[in-house]
Structures are given as C-alpha cells and as structure tokens.
Design goal:
alpha+beta, 172 residues, four-stranded antiparallel β-sheet
C-alpha cells in the first residue's frame, strides 16, 4: 500500500514539475486557486466490476476520511460509459480537488496516515494493481468557469398578457 502511494506521489510530483514549467507566465502565479489531480485509469480486462466495487468500498471511504481531515476538498470517480473513437485507453477518471498547491505539497504523508487508519494492515497496492493501471496523471487548476452562474428564474407574480385581461374581466 505504501509503495503504491509513493508511486502515486512520484507521478503527482512529475506532473506538478512539468505543469510548473509549462504554465510559467500563463496565470500560474495565482497559487491560491484550487487544483485538481486527474488520474486516467484503465480497469484490467474482465475486472471492471471488481474495480468499481474496490473504488466504492476502499477508495471512497479513504478519500472521505481525507476530506474530513482537511487533506483534500473532494474526490470523485467517473466511469466511461460510452466510447467515441477507438483505443481510448482508459475506463475511469479519478479527480482529487485540493484547496491549493500548499495542500498538494503535504498530500502524500497525510494520506498515508489516513490510509493506515482506515484500512490497517491491508495491502491496497497489491489489490489496486490487480484491478487497474494508471494510464495518465495530470494536474490542472481552474482559471475560468460557470460554477457561480445561476439560471434566471421568472417571477410567478408577473402576469402575462392573458392573465392581466382575465384579472380585468373578473374585477368588472
């Protein structure tokens, strides 16, 4: 389990370092923004259902504890139900949201504590490696979006032309 988390940590660090060099001068100086780690995962052949069960019974409780401990803001697993094109290369996407890069920097040591607490003595590395491969891992931060936008609502009090005529006729 520790080995898998260390490997994940190294993948995350490589992604971090490459994104730092790639993003310099392009808004990266806004370090207080939330960041997202995306892991593109391929369930091993014939292991889709087992991987899904593992994600629900092992990953989810571990990440929930990480949220409660303030290590991450959220974790989400997405399944790939429809494929467009051939050789997509992944069956699931796992997204971890961090408050900022400072939270990302302390992530692995803190997650190791949570994993040991949640599943003491369990070899999650062996279990995970038997079910899936990490195809790609990237770090992103949001620079624009519509999360704060709300749909406009029509007021129930504003009468339509027909309603106002009906009201006039009723008063007469």
């Amino acid at each position: 389990m520790r080995f898998t988390l260390k490997v994940l940590f190294l993948v995350l660090c490589c992604g971090y370092l490459s994104s730092v060099s790639a993003q310099t001068g392009h808004g990266f100086e806004e370090k207080g923004r939330p960041i997202y780690h995306l892991a593109f995962v391929q369930a091993k052949p014939g292991k889709d259902r087992e991987y899904r069960k593992f994600a629900m019974q092992v990953f989810k409780p571990m990440w929930e504890e990480a949220v409660k401990a303030g290590i991450i803001e959220s974790w989400t697993a997405y399944e790939h139900p429809v494929y467009f094109g051939s050789n997509v290369g992944y069956s699931h996407i796992l997204i971890v949201k961090f408050k900022n890069f400072a939270a990302f920097d302390t992530f692995i040591p803190n997650l190791l504590k949570v994993a040991d607490k949640t599943f003491p003595g369990r070899d999650m590395q062996r279990e995970a490696e038997a079910l899936m491969d990490i195809v790609k891992s990237d770090i992103f931060y949001e620079f624009a979006g519509t999360a704060g936008a709300k749909p406009e609502t029509k007021s129930a009090a504003s009468p339509t032309a027909d309603n106002s005529r009906d009201g006039e006729q009723k008063r007469k």
